[in-house]
Amino acid sequence: MGATSTSTGPRARTRADAVRNRERILAAAREAIVDQGPHAPLDEIARRAGVGNATLYRHFPDRESLLFHVLLYVNERIVERAQQTLETEHDPFEALRSLILHAAEERVGGLCPMLSFGVDHEDPRLLASRETVQRLTQQLIDRAHASGQLRRDVGAGDLLVAVARLTLPVPGTHGSDSAMARRHLQIFLDGLRTPPHSELLGAAITLEDLKEEFCPTTP
């Protein structure tokens, strides 16, 4: 009987190592971009990921490719958390809170400068992931509205813009202000609960409003 490959053979281990390296590079790139912006040195990203420059370039041949996949990586992680939250968290407001705090952990505000750095926003993969984030966010908001816990004058566009702004790194902190961002998001979340204590200026901002105002650079 001839030898057959198995899921635990050398090739499988090599593939698993490649997947781990790719994840480490993307996570390191996200943090470096938050700290230093889209021009963060690629060798610094490789150093943070614990891989050699050749490994980084094997996965991402140029800066534009790396930045594109960082955006895709963050969107996919937010989608995964949103889906998990919809399935497991029965309190609608706590489900929404969980997603917002996870978005802060993904450093979404610090990644905003990438949106104007030559990334192809019309790429079908990025469009699909962004639309999925928006759709799941809207589902969580609809549930929180239906439960009577979320004030009615707040829309999905309000939340997406507010989270992006509140998670922008404070100048001089070099991206090390994540605890501060979570604190300010907690203050923001408390202000979303019913009953409202003040009247907001203007109407709730919807996803459609956001697309019309910022498309194609809306995260």
Mind explaining what this structure looks like?
By secondary structure, the chain is mainly α. It folds into two domains: 11-61, Homeodomain-like (Arc Repressor Mutant, subunit A), CATH 1.10.10; 63-214, Tetracycline Repressor, domain 2 (Orthogonal Bundle), CATH 1.10.357.10. 63% of the residues lie in helices and 0% in strands. It contains nine helices and no strands. The chain has helices at residues 10-36, 42-49, 53-59, 63-88, 92-105, 124-146, 156-166, 178-192, 207-214. Helix 5 packs antiparallel against helix 6. The mean pLDDT is 85.
Descriptors:
Arc Repressor Mutant, subunit A, mainly alpha, Tetracycline Repressor, domain 2, elongated
Q: Give the CATH level 1 class of the largest domain.
A: Mainly Alpha
What is the name of the CATH superfamily of the largest domain? Tetracycline Repressor, domain 2
Q: What is the radius of gyration?
A: 20 Å
**Which regions have little confidence, pLDDT < 50, spanning 5+ residues?**
none
Largest sheet: none
CATH T-level topology of the largest domain: Tetracycline Repressor, domain 2
CATH architecture of the largest domain: Orthogonal Bundle
End-to-end span in angstroms? Answer: 54 Å
- Beta-strand segment tally: 0
Number of helix segments?
Answer: 9
| Helix percentage range | 55-70%
**Given the C-alpha coordinates, what overall shape results?**
elongated
Task: Please state roughly what percent of the residues sit in beta strands, choosing from under 5%, 5-15%, 15-25%, 25-35%, 35-45% or over 45%.
Answer: under 5%
Structural class determined from secondary elements: mainly alpha
Mean pLDDT: 85
Tell me the count of domains: 2
Q: What order do the SSEs take from the amino end to the carboxyl end, as H and E?
A: HHHHHHHHH
